[in-house]
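User: Teach me something about this protein's shape.
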Amino acid sequence: MEASMSRRAFMSSAAAIVTAPALCMSAAAEEPLVLRCSLETVPSHGRNIAIRDYLGKIEAAAQGRIKTQLFESGQLFPDLQVGKALLQGQIDMAVPGSWSLTGIVPDADFLQLPILYGRSMDTVHRAVDGRPGRLLANQIEQKLRSHVIGPSLDLGFFNWYSTSRALNSYADLKGLKIRNNGGAGQAWRTQFMGGIPNTTPLPNVALGLSQGTFDGLITSHESMASLQLWESGIRHCLEDHQFLGEYIPVVSLAFWQKLSADLQQIVTDLWRENISTYRGNMAAAQSRARELGQAHGVKIVVPATEELNAMRLRMMAEQDHVAKLSKISPEMVAAVLAEVPAAA
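Assistant: First, the predicted structure itself:
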């Protein structure tokens, strides 16, 4: 009897030893892939709202196979560093402004070309959604070893903002120290207007304004409102729609290649199905932010159409210089010129 019991115990133990690795492998296979996304803007910003919604849709559609983590307010990285973070595998996803990628992908600065200055959203979208946008996506994929999910997300138009000096005309920008987001194009435009360029990460802008590190900045109404920059002294805006800010949805190639074909399709389809809604929401957020800024004492001056067109023509005389300064390739410049008419 004892021998029989011993044999049964041995066989049971052996079976357990054989089965255990299989169970562990099965459990490991069921572990969800973790998608870590980094944003530098605050939770109330339109970009955060759109991406939070998108990540929630991914989790629901993936049915437990993908778990998302959203790090906001620059908890992990400011946008100026997310390109390197994607390359080094420190994050899996980011939605940086194109201007923050120019150090690695110079053609990302094509939105700063003078021909796009003061244009309508529809006109700029011809470049963003056309061949220039496709060229940029290909370069980002190659240089950042990443995958661009789909069309870019509009942030909105960027304008001039200042603290103490009223901005009633372009001449009022002369001598002001102006913070920008990064990239040679914005710095060139500031100098063209007679200002002094400064580049400061977005999370540090409020403190910089309060301490007088700079006199004003280039940003959008939404960014101004989400950071409540009137509390840091912003009182004036020259609304020239100098360029349309675009956020580019990017996932690291390392993460992308972990996804099965059906999960890749889910990630792609969900973005393409929702981007029109997200763009519409961003445009509405810009309008609300404009009104909110005015309610908090920000005076907005809009240059006449004739002034905008005349300024664009003045800038276009230096377009080749801007492209060379920004290291924008001749191929990209040609692609933009093919999409956008030179005439106002």
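Now, about its shape. The chain has 13 helices and eleven strands. The chain has one domain: 32-339. If you'd like, I can walk through any region in more detail.
User: That's plenty for now, thanks!
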